[in-house]
Design a protein that fits this description.
The complex is a heterodimer of chains A (45) and B (506). Chain A has 45 residues and is mainly α. Chain A has one helix and no strands. Mean pLDDT of chain A is 81; it is low at 1-7. Chain B has 14 helices and two strands; from the N terminus they run ββαααααααααααααα. In chain B, helix 2 packs antiparallel against helix 3 (103-125), helix 12 packs antiparallel against helix 13 and helix 12 (383-410) packs parallel to helix 14 (470-501). The chains are: A mainly alpha (45), B mainly alpha (506). The interface between A and B is medium-sized, with 22 and 25 residues.
């Protein structure tokens, strides 16, 4: 992922990056679902 | 440099570490005590889950509230703190090749913790403290309940202080040079949070003890709650910091993973210390004593500075595993490194399952339900225990179970008995807890309250109806609890049998 200075190894973690994005999508979905539940329970008129 | 008591060390044949023998004995003793209280709490969990499942409704009402109190104390306090003390001695002495400072005082700490735990348990089981883990004023328990907690806390403070002293002396005696290993650094942050947690606990439990004796006449419930959660949430952050340290340790032991940026991982631990008290506001979101802007700024903004620490670890830990696995040749596609990870090693599977369930179910649900507006529909429902069982049980407890499978051979020097059982145990426990947590979350969404013996409300002046689906969701709680306790019993069985009958290692 991060290209280091010369003489140091490159860190390559595409799998972790994919997992992190999966987690981010889950987090955002979970958050919106929670707000949707609240809207069903407590409508604003 | 020669140091006093060289004869009290042995060299570990597996790791090459110099293990201080008095520290070794204290690690094992504290870990055994932890497992005993885990067993008590786990059996209570089974009874409680089978009561919340309406099809079973096992316990009568009075025993339900009694056992919920005991379950909370034994799991959230006694099991976890004993294990963390064992972890501190391991991280402070063994990992630094150092001697544990003043082992005599460490034994005093142990006996105080045991005495306090037995006293508190005794009072609860005698029916004199049906006040739940939070013991909210004006509910008043017998004074010995509060005294038991105070005595336990004094022991824990001594143990934590000895850890600090051990780290300082390790440096002074030349046992350890340079930066602390990351695992010890993580445990150090847990210990720092533990110190101010325990001091906050003293600030709340000592006056409550005096109030229970009648020496203080009145105790404002709003003040109690604010001071209690100054102790209560940092207490959970101790578990979080310790759990993350254990994740780094287990991934290193099982895959050879190293942090990809150790400095960033250390900064992430520091964020926990600096910001957790601000996040504690999420326990006070419905309290009338505090203003809404105060609550929103702390729980919905400052809290994220602590969450940022978790996000850094959430990247760093799997990234370390991926780098280590790719170096072994598992480079095909995005996830070969993950498929070929040692899933048969209980240490790795426990860490991985703990990481995933904590992240996807526990941490996210906590951040979400800690939002002030959302909390209005969540407060006092089963969604709250749904959140913290994903964090403390699937997260911390499962990670500690995984570490135990290494502590037994490396520190207690006994081979594991029932290795095939140890291999499947993390999966069984994780399955049970996931079912339990999902059941709790769905039940809470449908309005099922927490800390409530029955949802039938017989004799109530107003009829309360829940959707039919709660039979299914509460059934998930019951069945998930059964599976999880089965997993817990396997763990306890493997641990105890290994310590008693495991083949001795050199």
């Amino acid at each position: 992922m991060a290209e280091m200075q010369s003489g140091r190894e490159e860190i390559h973690t595409p799998g972790t990056l994919a997992l992190v994005f999966i987690f981010l999508v889950w987090f955002v979905s979970f958050y919106f679902l929670a707000w949707w539940f609240l809207s069903q329970l407590w409508p604003v008129r | 440099m020669s140091t006093p008591g060289e004869a009290q060390f042995r060299t570990c044949s597996a790791t090459g570490l110099h293990v201080h023998l008095p520290a070794e004995r204290l690690i094992i003793t504290n870990a055994v005590a932890a497992v005993v209280f885990l067993l008590v709490g786990g059996l209570l969990a089974l009874l409680i889950a089978l009561t919340r499942w309406p099809a079973v409704q096992l316990l009568p009402a009075d025993l339900f509230y009694r056992f919920v109190t005991a379950h909370g104390m034994n799991m959230l306090v006694f099991w976890i703190v004993f294990f963390e003390v064992a972890g501190l001695y391991f991280g402070g002495a063994v990992l630094l090749n150092a001697r544990l400072v003043k082992p005599g005082l460490a034994w005093l700490a142990f006996y105080l913790m045991v005495a306090g735990a037995i006293l508190a348990n005794g009072v609860v089981f005698a029916g004199k403290a049906d006040v739940m883990f939070t013991a909210y004023v004006p509910m008043k328990a017998h004074p010995l309940f509060y005294l038991g907690i105070i005595v336990f806390a004094v022991g824990a403070i001594i143990a934590v202080s000895l850890f600090f002293a051990t780290v300082v002396v390790a440096k002074a005696e030349g046992r350890h040079r340079g930066s602390l290993p990351l695992v010890t650094f993580g445990l150090l942050t847990a210990a720092i949070i533990a110190l101010f947690t325990l001091l906050a606990g003293a600030i709340i439990f000592i006056p409550t003890f005096l109030w229970s004796l009648g020496w203080i006449k009145e105790f404002d419930p709003g003040v109690y709650r604010i001071l209690f959660w100054a102790f209560g949430h940092p207490a959970q952050q101790v578990n979080l910091a310790a759990m993350v340290a254990v994740w780094y340790a287990l991934t290193a032991l099982t895959t050879g993973a190293k942090p990809i940026n150790e400095k960033l991982s250390r900064i992430a631990f520091l964020l926990y210390i600096l910001f957790i008290n601000l996040g504690s506001m999420h326990h006070l979101l419905v309290d009338p004593a505090l203003t809404t802007p105060n609550r929103i700024v702390n729980a919905s903004y400052f809290m994220y500075l602590a969450v940022l620490g978790s996000m850094i670890h959430a990247f760093s830990i799997p990234a370390g595993v991926e780098v280590a696995q790719r170096a072994k040749g598992y480079t095909r596609g995005l996830f070969q490194w993950l498929r070929k990870a040692p899933w048969g090693e209980p240490g790795f599977s426990a860490a991985a399952l703990s990481f995933v369930i904590f992240g996807f179910l526990g941490g996210t649900s906590g951040v979400i339900i800690g939002t002030m507006q959302l909390n209005m529909a969540v407060h006092n429902t089963l969604r709250v225990p749904g959140h913290f069982h994903a964090t403390v049980v699937a997260g911390t407890t499962l990670a500690f179970m995984g570490l135990t499978y290494y502590v037994i051979p490396l520190v207690a020097r006994r081979e594991l008995v029932g290795r095939p059982w140890a291999r499947v145990q993390p999966y069984i426990f994780a399955l049970g807890i996931t079912l339990l947590v999902l059941g709790m979350n769905f039940s809470g969404i449908l309005g099922i309250p927490r800390r409530t013996w029955s949802i039938n409300y017989e004799g109530a002046p107003l009829a309360v109806r829940f959707p039919e689906a709660v039979s299914l969701t509460l059934g998930m709680v019951g069945i998930g609890g059964l599976i999880a306790v089965f997993g817990l019993l396997i763990f306890v069985g493997v641990a105890i049998l290994s310590l008693l009958f495991g083949k001795r290692r050199a």
